[in-house]
């Protein structure tokens, strides 16, 4: 099998070898629980025949997927490279060191930590590394102690109270921030006293003067930048300036756009890594790896991040760290830069496809990998639009828009992303067609009564759109040449 990072057009041998591997694996699974083998086959069939436009999803290469199915899954390895709480971790050390090395090289980071199991875990590691560095370490020094276990119960209570009384400033949820950036339903909101910065009500863009004013007033320990539904680029140099002015640590969550950073679409002030003290990401979105997380850090924060397990995390998923190493190796190949640029170009095309057909986009367009469509102009909630699109084989997710009148459950927006279909080989023309099909569904769908969930789409529209999208999908197959029977 050749390591072809352009999984949309792998060589014939690659497809044939991957087919053989999956057929063998499914046969083994089938012998124990045939329903799981069947669900696995069906998932591939469903993914092959739907327009996957969820901005946080992608298709990992067979090399990445196959790497996850090994006996590394069976090994405990709490601790860090060369310093484990279990014996016989020599091969896990190799895997984790390689994942970290690829991450450091790819992102130009002094330090990388490959253990987080997900984005929330990566953010928790980052938060606690910052708290350990900025609150616990000086607290211990003040009390003349080296280790938390050396403190009296009373002193530990004083330090614990300090750890639990810190401030965090992040982007508001309705303007594109993420739940893990200090919001109450998530543990981050229970840990920190949180405030949000939003976007300008007219332009929808981040107003850096407003962020600065909020930071000066609130004086956070941590300034969080990064988003999951903001369709624009961020100037991380400015964010760092603001953090420095108020003595905050800049943490950037680049989960959504890590692929654009890796592919050098975001450079200079738009590359978070040289500006942030700590950068977190997931590995499965635009980065196109296995499901998981990653933390990058400066030398100052590296020692605390390195204690992520067991401070915050359970035993590392060694099989997933191995797959991270493979995916990061793929992302270091020149073809990944072409892929990342295509993701951004395709988002432009999708946005223009919408605006040229009269649809309203939050911020008027995009300059990253995602587009946020305001569906109120179609007289629909996000929930109704999401369901009507799904009936037509178009997989998206509803999302709040700034000052959303329908709240976070029903919402008024649909978020679209280009990473997955770009992996399949979709280009500008296909994304313009996607916009046409989406507008066709939404303009032929009506809300039923006053319900925020019920809707009706004109007869025949869903079937027509599904047929048109199936044609495009057949011309750009997922895992071309991969056959399971
Ligand atoms: N679930 C991811 C997203 O869709 O943005 C992040 O939580």
From TrEMBL:
**Keywords, in A-Z order:** Amino-acid biosynthesis, Cytoplasm, Methyltransferase, One-carbon metabolism, Pyridoxal phosphate, Transferase
Q: Where is this site: Plays an important role in substrate specificity?
A: 284
- Where this protein primarily resides, as one coarse class? cytoplasm
Q: State any GO BP term from the record.
A: methylation
Q: Where does it live in the cell? A: Cytoplasm
N6-(pyridoxal phosphate)lysine modification sites are 285
Which residues take part in binding (6S)-5,6,7,8-tetrahydrofolate? 173, 177-179, 299
Protein name in UniProt: Serine hydroxymethyltransferase
